[in-house]
Amino acid sequence: MLYVSGRTPRMGTTHDGKSYLDYDDEEIKRRFTISTSMASFPYKDFKINLLDTSGHPDFIGDTIATMQAAEMGLFVVDAVAGPQVMTTRLWRYAEDMRLSRAIFINHIDRENADFASAMALLHARFGSRVVPVNIPIGNAEEFKGVIDIIRMKARYNDGDDKEIIEDIPAEYMERAEAARDKLCDLIAEADDELMMKYLEGEPLTQEEVEGLLSEAITQELAIPVFVGSTIIKQGVRGVMDDIVTYFPTPESHGRFAMSDGSDIRISHEKRAAGFVFKTVADPFVGRLSFIKLLAGVVEPGTELINARTQKKERLGSIKIMMGKEATDVKSAKAGDIIVVPKLGETRTGDTLSVSGEIAVDPFPLPKPQYPVAVEAADKKAEDKLGTFLARSVEVDPTIKLTRNEETHQTVLTCMGETQVELLLARAKEQAGVEIKILPVRVPYRETIRKTAEAQGRHKKQTGGAGQFGDCWLRLSPNPGNGYEFVDEIKGGAIPNGLIPAVDKGVQETMLEGFLAGYPMEDIKCAVYDGSYHSVDSNEMAFRTAARIGFRAACEKADPVIMEPMCRMDITVTEEYAGPVMGDISTRRGRIVGTDSAEAGETVIKVRVPYAEVLSYTKDLRSITRGSGTYDLWMDGYEQAPFDVQKKLIAEYQASK
User: Fold this and answer.
1) Half-sphere exposure (CA, 13 Å, Cβ side) for 301?
2) Angstrom distance (rounded) from CA 282 to CA 337
3) pLDDT for 429
């Protein structure tokens, strides 16, 4: 489209690393779109804003956020392979957003390409409202042009980037008329009066067809399907003609859900407002905010209020993006997409307006579920790493950064392995930091299963003042109630002032663990006897005595390791339900139940040890060919099997 419109001087493709909109080094290297890029170009007295998004599951958050800024989603489907897993996932998101959709069947000139087979796949996946507005003239190697069903004309690209429009060849007229009848059946529903006329057998006129089509697309009554081959530029100009003629405009479609439950529509009449749907951290320019203007007109210097922070933000400059090139503009109006650098506290999902009272409710993004522990390869670069990661989280809501004080790890949770690899590459390139990936430590716990008693006695004489502490402890299981300390001393065997030292010594020892260095919990500890020395007894002595006594009692109290459990809702198509259930069983998981979901999907509810599903994102994609998704919640602890405990204890002893 960029080339046909004259906006770019050359044709480029993702596969040869020369796509105009896939300009990032990592995109060129990996040969697929990672981050949304934008191009605006004029066509027949209109301006088309093209948002080129990623189809990779690790970057689905960026794509979903971008979809909120569009009036139409154009899904590109391969003529041979048909709709892929991510096509379907993003289609469901578009349905939930009430985003109008169209499909372009690409590469119809490929070997084994067949239009009828491609349409059958689309109908099976997306329903009967998917209707062709083009049919190809020839399939595979014989493809040479398209028939425009709306205008009932044949269209060819002549090889010199000029389009030839002719009458439909006689041998294709019957197929063209059948396709037009299907189109009319759907679009007639957009007008009750015309539908009655149509049902009574009176055909729709050309004017009525063209008048109804735009409304039918906006109401999602018809989902137009185009066909062609972008490499040879067949069918592209027809798509562009229909974009400016029939696709929804910002005013006809642009509805945004507000946080108060109401809707806001794009309007030129109201005072300026905009929704930040994407943020980019540019290493040279700083933070760039991509804004869909919802109302009014903005100029450089315009001041707007952020609904979340209630602070003013001044638009220092306003830019329109063309791939990686930014052009300053003097003003922009409702429906435009602009880029504004260096906004102070504005983030993805924020709304800016004159009043500060408009707050768009961002569409919820999938939760990241793929955790990795990270640290700087060079300890001197820890501060640089922290700054880089904080900036990454700030601009990408699908990245979560936490510091686990228990395991002393910085944990980065992403959408998948590729997103992690991208962050590593960008850390090195932009911040000069090499990141080391470590296994995430699982937060195991230790506890006891029996009641046991033991003495803790500490006596030390060093020539001057000595140390003396003596206490008897009784440990008993306290399931579900955490740690409890009970003072059962009678007759002053241990002075009241030294009892807290016993409590403190016990808690310190519980943090260190007994079997494998994991914190202990759910233990009731009673101090019931002991003795002291009037000179040598002090807090330190009784803390040490308590530590000795606690460990001695643990030895007899049947200590065990507890593993964290989690609940998962795994959503898969029916064909993969069996393999997924079998896989969960090999991970020591239990199937709790199943539910039916939309579009023939099954939700499998499981309870499984957390350690077994740390990298489940990658494994589930492998099992389900990328179609499975899941939600995960932590759900208490259970005693780990003996072989797991034995392995953890051996690893702990080796580390010591």
Assistant:
1) 1
2) 18
3) 87
Enter the tokens of residue 206. 């050309």
pLDDT of residue 262: 84
Per-residue tokens: 596:
């039916």
Instruction: Give the Cα separation of 204 and 133 in Å (integer).
Output: 16
The answer to whether the beta carbons of residues 75 and 105 sit under 8 Å apart is no
Reported for 108-111, long-range contacts at CB under 8 A and 24+ positions apart, including other chains, are 108/79, 108/136, 108/139, 108/140, 108/143, 108/227, 108/228, 108/229, 108/235, 109/140, 109/141, 109/143, 109/229, 109/231, 109/232, 109/234, 110/78, 110/79, 110/80, 110/140, 110/229, 111/80, 111/140, 111/141
Report pTM. 0.85
Q: CA dist 310 to 291, 294, 613, Å? A: 18, 18, 41
- Please tell me what DSSP assigns to residue 364: P
- Going by the DSSP 8-state scheme, the letter that residue 290 receives in this structure is E
Find the helix or strand (DSSP H, E) in which 304 lies.
strand 303-306
Beta strand extents in 212-254 (DSSP E only)? 223-227
> Please, where are the H alpha helices in 557-615?
574-586
317 vs 295: CA distance, rounded Å: 18
Altogether, the residues listed in the chain come to a count of 656
CA 303 to chain CA centroid, nearest Å: 32
Tell me phi and psi for residue 500, to 5 degrees.
-60, -30
Taking the mean position of all CA atoms in its chain, how far away is CA 640?
Answer: 32
Q: Which two tokens stand for residue 88?
A: 């379907």
Calpha distance 392→394 (Å, rounded): 5
Instruction: Kindly write down the DSSP assignment for every residue of 104-128, as one continuous string.
Output: EEE-TTSTT--HHHHHHHHHHHH-T
Per the listing, tokens 């990592």 go with: 26
pLDDT at 17: 67
Average pLDDT score over residue span 380-394: 89
Report the alpha-carbon distance of residue 160 to residue 100 in Å, rounded. Answer: 33
Quick count: other Cβ atoms within 10 Å of Cβ 142?
9
> Using alpha carbons only, how large is the chain's radius of gyration in Å?
33
Task: Kindly state the tokens that stand for 95.
Answer: 């349905």
Cβ(313)–Cβ(288) below 8 Å: no
**Predicted pLDDT at 198:** 87
**Residue that the structure tokens 């989280």 belong to:** 393
Distance between start and end Cα atoms, the chain? 64
Asked if 68 contacts 51 with a C-beta cutoff of 8 angstroms, the reply is no
Q: 21-25, 40-44, 350-354, 532-536 — which one is most confidently predicted on average?
A: 350-354
Q: Evaluate if residue 566 carries a pLDDT over 90.
A: yes
Three-state DSSP class for residue 252: helix
